[in-house]
Fold:
Amino acid sequence: MSTASDRVDAEKLKVGELHTNCYVLSIQDQAVVIDPGADAERILNTIAGLGLRVQLVILTHGHADHMAAAPEVCVACDCKLAVHREDMPLLRDPRLNLSYFFGKNLSIRDSLIGQELTDGERLLIAGIGFKVMHTPGHTPGSVSLQFDGSVITGDCLFENGMGRTDLPLGDDQELWNSVYTRLLTLPDETVVLPGHGSATTIGAEKLHW
Structure:
């Protein structure tokens, strides 16, 4: 785990037509990239400009707007991809990952996947300690990632709202359960870093539910 003296630097890039939040988290010169959904060149230029070495790319879920740039980033940075096993089918199927509906045919080959995320798993990547929370509903394998008083929620929880469930494999009851029993039970001061839009806190979001 990162220690009290370690400072996690967080760079947020809004990428693609849907303004997906791609996060580059780092300690010193080691980094993790979360949800590189588009604009691979801009992501890679940011990484290079900060002098970072990427250890892993993590996907909160398998929709195209969160993973389209992942293959290029992984190859350029010589690293692997991590995703929950229940979203593996989305990586292979353009209809499930929604790229088909945007006139594209996105499929990520298995050889790029280096790790399957599991609920409750604790990761130490680039000196940053993460706890994986399985928060399904938007997709079956959606995860949220806790680290240093923050949680990256993908498309599960946003400022003043939660994700859609009318897309393939979405489940309204599962999403409500993820929000109410997993995320809103975190400490009020936890900073929420969503997949789209602005940061918020768990305490602020409790006021809306």
